[in-house]
Amino acid sequence: MRFFKPTMVAIALVAVMGCSEQKPAEEAVLVLDTDTQKQAYSLGASIGMYMERNLEEQSKMGVALDQEIILKGFTDSLAGKSQIEKEEIQAILMGLDQQMKAKQKELSAVASESSKAEGIAFLEANAKEEGVIITESGIQYSVMTAVEGDKPAATDTVKVHYKGTFLNGETFDSSYERGEPAVFPLNRVIAGWTEGVQLMSVGSKFKFTIPSDLAYGPTGNPPRIPGHSVLQFEIELLEIQKEDAPIQVGE
């Protein structure tokens, strides 16, 4: 992730400078009557939110940049009075970007180790819960809605509704929240899904607890899912779309 995009930073500083130069009275009477005025304001607001997110992420990693100095650098440069030469500015920003990446890597490693220990403990405890079944590979599941019928093969395409959560119950992905089922080839998802959904019949609903080695492994799926994350999914199988049978010729 790049934390500084020079073009966007420059544009954002224009918006910040414009806001800082307005008097409180002028801000109070700002009226957005025309489409052009609304477009201009929306652009400024969007850039402001972009900058806010970047500065917030940097602050979380121990780098708090003074907004007044940021603004001073912009105004000095605009007036042709920059205290730092262009080449040095580029080198400094590249160094800052590398600093942020190194810090992010460090934090990811800490989160990964924490997830690993938490996952091991959770799997041990969950395995003792009533109704939990454990597959040979280590997937733990329970049947929420039982239905008899055909089950998909790994080569089939399936339509499902699902909710994915961390062990603390926080949802990280949900087709329910998006308002539409997901459709995908069963052999093109994480191994825990490929194996687990093959246990289901259309209309059934299972809850899976998937070890990290059958999910996103030690690297995780940054920035959302830390390495070594044990994940839980509630999956409802809605439809099986069988792989087309090969056309027989000459029979």
Structure, described:
Helix 1 (6-21) packs across helix 3 and helix 1 (6-21) crosses helix 4. Strands 1, 2, 3, 4, 5, 6 and 7 form a seven-stranded antiparallel beta sheet that branches. This protein has helices spanning 6-21, 24-28, 35-60, 67-78, 86-126, 175-178, 191-197; strands spanning 133-134, 140-145, 157-165, 171-174, 182-185, 205-210, 231-241. The chain has seven helices and seven strands. The protein starts with 5 loop residues before the first helix and ends in a 10-residue tail after the last strand. The longest helix has 41 residues, at 86-126. 44% of the residues lie in helices and 17% in strands. The model is unreliable at 1-26 and 245-251 (pLDDT under 50). The protein has two domains: 6-83, no CATH class; 125-241, Roll (Chitinase A, domain 3). It is an alpha+beta fold. A hairpin with a 5-residue loop joins strand 3 and strand 4.
